[in-house]
Write the structure tokens for this entry.
Amino acid sequence: MLDEFLRLPHQKAFQIRARSGDAEVVFGDFSHLPTRCKYVALLPQWDFLNFLARKAGAYPWFSLRMRAEVTGLIEENGRVAGVRARTPDGELEVRADLVVGADGRHSDVRARAGLPLQELGAPIDVLWFRVSRRPDDPETPTGNFTRGRLLAMINRTDYWQCGYVIRKGALEQLKARGLAEFRADLARLSPILADRVGEVRGWDDVNLLTVRVDRLTRWYRPGLLCIGDAAHAMSPVGGVGINLAIQDAVAAANILAVPLRDGTLTLDHLRRVQKRRELPTRLTQRLQVLIQDRVLTRVLSGEISSGVPAPIRLFGRFPFLARVPARVVGVGFRPEHVKSPAVPIPA
């Protein structure tokens, strides 16, 4: 499906850069990845999901229900046997041999299943907003640093998706300083935006992402499996949450497809999915927490007075180091490849 997927409008990120004033460092270089596409493809998540829905829709036994909100689990004889949902057309019951909770960091399925959750903590939140992009602007995703301030910028062709990192719970303090001061911060962080920061017309143009880093200690119950952010909420550091979610799904398909088809699914199969994906999840979250605590909080507290933080400056002195974060972001600690049996699409 790759060639068809790449015909969707997207941007290619071959590098990730950090900038402070005139100083710039490449700290992620994807050109050395052992993959066909030696870059990260950036596109809106809804375009990706629509692509998957179209491909799955070729199978007559696939059914997609939009605008259906899970309101409860159906439990029978000590196992989850399906879900109840609310739709514009009324209440809906869906029964299943296996319910997969893939409904994100605020998972209703996870909460209703009562699965045990371990909080790892996150000292930051992120404010997301848009600013227009011009054809002569840089193309590479960039982290912009000044004392006490951090702004991430992602190229979305005709606009920049901007993430302004703040200390957790500091939004009201930021609002108290006023919108003009916020715009001035943006201009100092990224001078190319100086004549465009007025596009942030008010606080309604700014969306708060409350950062969470957590994971289930057990991802499953009889009849139920959680994957992706529902099993392990990731920090936005590295933007790898979607990567791990897809890898979870591929691993789950590899392990579960045949026993589901044959009606032989057991709790041990679900346990194997967690065992397969738990180590890369733990390693990635440990690295994210380390960056949050050792770099981001020091920048936001003003401990790093100016310039690109020292750990990132090392990438300027030793360019080969840029291959390491590129590998973690682009491939991960345990890449997954589809091994479940192909099912032909009926003519």
